[in-house]
Amino acid sequence: MIGGTDHRGVTERPPTGYRARITVRRVDLSPGPVALAAAAARLSPAELLRAERGTDAVRARRILVRAALRELLGEILGLPAREVPLAARPGRPALVPAAGRADLDMSCSASGDVGLVAVVRAGRIGVDVQRVHDGDPDTALAEGWLSVAERNRIVDLPAREQPEALARAWVQKEAVLKGQGIGLRADMTCVRSLSRETGRIGRWSISPVDVPTGYVGCVAVRAAGLLGSVTRLPVLV
Hints:
It contains 6 helices and 7 strands; from the N terminus they run βαααβββαααβββ. The protein is globular and about 50 Å long. The longest helix has 22 residues, at 56-77. 28% of the residues lie in helices and 21% in strands.
């Protein structure tokens, strides 16, 4: 829950005119071996097998993010993290249909040492976090994921503001695409980012997420009860 704490320690605050409930949790992706082993103990054999298909850093990231999602869903469902009925399929996380909680939607993201997991009730959600890369932004500007208007908008900013503006544009686009269940398979120019942190992209409400300095986080939510944009979302740590 956002803004207040219930008996499970989940922070949640439905903004004015908003019936959906959003929960975001931040994940430290640089823990020691003891914390990593504890996180791995919460995963299913299939999840552990998938996590092993990568470098040590990829393995740790997959384990930590998936365990954090299980913990958050366990708090919502009143279940131990290991017993949360997550579907074993790769890609976008979801509960198995037999769980009877079709009202819950979820999304995950990771960049550098920061991960985010997000859950919404009665809606669709996408979350993304990106480390801000200092230095010459010309390479990112030339990669083709910005529309001409977006590129011109960012180029017009002072040079010191361009890296964060690029990261913000990326997370807004990817959060929407994740919410749609498409991800990076789509042409990112089909989603137009905002010139500000909060607002709407089509039917999606865009909100920044509190993340450490040097990162940008974003949540995109689509829900029938959402009448306006959601303010900046705090996160559980």
